[in-house]
Amino acid sequence: MAKKATESFEQQLTRLNEIVQKLDAEDTALEESMKLYEEGIVLVEKCVTYLSDARQKIKELRKRSDGVFEKLDFEEE
Questions:
Q1: Nearest C-alpha neighbor of 71 from the set 60, 15, 36, 12
Q2: Per-residue confidence band for 75, with pLDDT thresholds at 50, 70 and 90
Q3: What does the alpha-carbon distance between residue 10 and residue 38 come to, in Å, rounded to a whole number?
Q4: What whole-number distance in Å separates Cα of residue 35 and Cα of residue 30?
Q5: What is the largest CA-CA distance in the chain?
Q6: 3-class DSSP state for residue 6?
Q7: Is the whole model's pTM more than 0.90, yes or no?
Q8: What's residue 30's pLDDT?
Q9: How many angstroms separate the CA atoms of 38 and 40, rounded?
Q10: Smallest Cα–Cα separation from 3: which of 31, 16, 66?
C-alpha cells in the first residue's frame, strides 16, 4: 500500500505498528511480508528524517524565559 507524503508522523507510526503486527502474524505470506517490510523501511526513513528535522527546529527555536532566543544543543547519542 503506497503512502502519501502528507501523512503525519503519528499516522506513519500507526502504519508501522500495523506492519509489525502483520509481520508477527503466522499466517502472513512470504510475498506479503516482503512488501510490508519494504514499506516499513520507507516509513522508518521518513520518521527518522521527521525527527531529525524537528530536532533542528528545536535547536533554532528555543526561547529563554527572558525572551531571548538561544541555540539548544542536544548531546549526540
A1: 60
A2: low
A3: 19
A4: 9
A5: 59
A6: coil
A7: no
A8: 96
A9: 5
A10: 16
What is the signed CA dihedral for 15, 20, 24, 30, rounded to 10 degrees? 80
Least Cα distance to 20 among 49, 44, 56 occurs for 44
- HSE-CB of 27 using CA atoms within 13 angstroms: 0
CA–CA distance, 14 with 21 (Å, rounded to integer) = 11
Nearest-angstrom CA–CA distance, 57 and 50: 11
| d(C-alpha 39, C-alpha 68), whole Å | 43
User: Residues 26, 30, 31, 35: is their CA dihedral positive or negative?
Assistant: positive
Domain ranges of the chain: 12-61
* CA distances for 39 relative to 3, 33, 44, angstroms: 9, 10, 9
- Residues 11-50: tens digit of each pLDDT: 999 999 999 999 999 999 999 999 999 999 999 999 999 9
